[in-house]
Amino acid sequence: MAKNQKVKDAPKEKVKGDSKLLTAYPAEVIERLERQSGKQAVYMVRCKILDGRDAGKIMRRLVYGPTRPGDIIMLTQTEIEAGGSRGGRR
After folding, report:
1. Handedness of CA 31, 35, 41, 42 (dihedral sign)
2. Fewer CB within 10 A of the terminal residue: the chain, N end or C end?
3. What residue numbers bound the domain in which 37 lies?
4. What is the pTM of this model?
């Protein structure tokens, strides 16, 4: 191959499905803090980010569905933390 010869890039593959999951980061559930009120099974959990820019960070997140300590969840955002409980003083 000559020095000045350009190489064509291979065509990029199209990804089917949700593109948000391409930038999801794994997090391990450390503990389940509380269950939010309502008909849906929504839990506030503390989790430790395992990969990405915020690796090692421990944060609170709301999770739909049953979870246990040790479960791995995929987070699309690692910058935003869930708020505290709503039953405080006014």
Report:
1. negative
2. C
3. 21-75
4. 0.65
